[in-house]
Each structure stands twice: as structure tokens, then as C-alpha cells.
Amino acid sequence: MIIMGNRSLIIRDLRVTADGKKILSGVSLTVNPGNIHVIMGPNGSGKSTLAAAILGYPYYEIGKTSRIIMDGYDLRELPTDKRVKRGLFLAFQNPIAVPGVSVISLLRTSFREICGIPPGKNVKDLANPVLDSRLGTTGFSWSRFMKSVESHSKYLGIDRRLLLRGINDGFSGGEKKKTELLAALTVKPRYAIFDEIDTGLDIDALKTVAHGIKKLRDSGTGIIVITHYQRILKFFRPDNVHILVNGKIAVSGKYGLVRKIEREGYRSFII
To answer: Which CATH architecture has domain 9-47+60-269?
Structure first.
């Protein structure tokens, strides 16, 4: 259903239950293109549930008054795959391994599906502004797509040989998180959610991932970063910080809110 409004991802009164247990109790926030919102909070506060609910994970029951509106379109009735095709992206906290399916095959298929490129056709030159913006060039071809992937891989420090391996099959923690970010940079979603992408990263990988998020932000993607820690935030300044406690946003603010958490923890936000 189309709803009038400006371009943004609008979450309104998001209430989520699973197996009769209330997890989110009225979360609201608005993410504009090119902005980074950070969600922080103690374990069990509902951060990962928020991400999954936005993408339409069927396990969760969404409240009747809840709204998930992307660029003026109500997503509530859409399944996950159609939400992704409309421009949503989720990088998982614990990406699973898929032996036998290479990373490059996943990237190529995802790009084709999201951009609506017909399968089984050799598209030599397809004029399309959406494709042009994703590849940073005029006129689409698969060779240009590969050059784009290789450019992003080099930027993230991903060995080209990794692209030919099974998805996350034997990958280190840093390789998994960089591959998730590579997928986001390749498809250039309208809105991206990164669920604890900083977990398990050493300082060099952390900097690389943070710079990749900045690059995605600079391309116009609205971003939600879910994290427990402030260390990744030192490498990019979020526009907004939200503290999620017991299924509700207890407080929202700017980067200064992160420093308060460093000093005091989450105790002052827990009622």
C-alpha cells in the first residue's frame, strides 16, 4: 500500500511478539537517506528482533497499530524477499555457511534479482539509471559488474580467491563480516541494517568495516548499526544514537550519548 510521504524508512509503534512473549513494545524511529542510526542496549533488549521484524521475519507477530514504511510504501504485507527487492538489506549477526555456493554466485544472483535483470540472458548493454548508479557508470554489462565487485573487494581487503569459495565456508570472523559488507556495497540498498557487524573483529578489520559503512552512507544509503560497543563508532560519527531497553527506546541522542554509556553503562537507562 502506498502512503504519501518523503523518502525515508519510518518505523512507527513497532510491537512484536513471539510465542506469546512480548519483545518490542512500541519502537519508533525514522532513518533518512545518507544517515546512520545506531541502536545500542543490553543483552535481550530486542535489538536483533527489531532488525528481523523490519525485514519481515515470519516467526514474529507484528502489532496491528505498527507501521513499517519505506519511501512512502507500507511494507507490512510484503514477504521478506519483496522487501529486499524494494531496497532493504540485513547483514546478519552470525552469517551461516553455504558450502557449494560461491560468494560471487550469490552476489551476481542478488544483483540480478534486485535490479530485475532477466535470468539466462546475455545482457551486453542495458541502459538503466538504477544499474548505472549501482555500478557508478553508464550502461550495464556483467564485465562492469565484475569490475565493481573487484573494486569493492580491494577496498575491503578481500582476496579475490575468497569470491570463488563457498559462502562463509571456513571463513574467519573478519572475512564473514567483510563479505556481508561487500554484498551491501554491491547491491547498494536504499536502507541497510548491520546487526553487530563489529563482533569478533580485530582493530584493522574494524577500521575497514567502519570505512565501508561510511562509503555506503556516502552513496546515499540510510543505515542502522546495531552494536553493544562504542569502539566502531570512533571511526564514523552516527547521526543518531538510540538506547533500546526492555523492548523500548529509553532515550535517543547524538554521539555524546555514547560517551555517557562508556562512563555509566546501561544502568541509568534500566528501570
So the answer is: 3-Layer(aba) Sandwich (3.40)
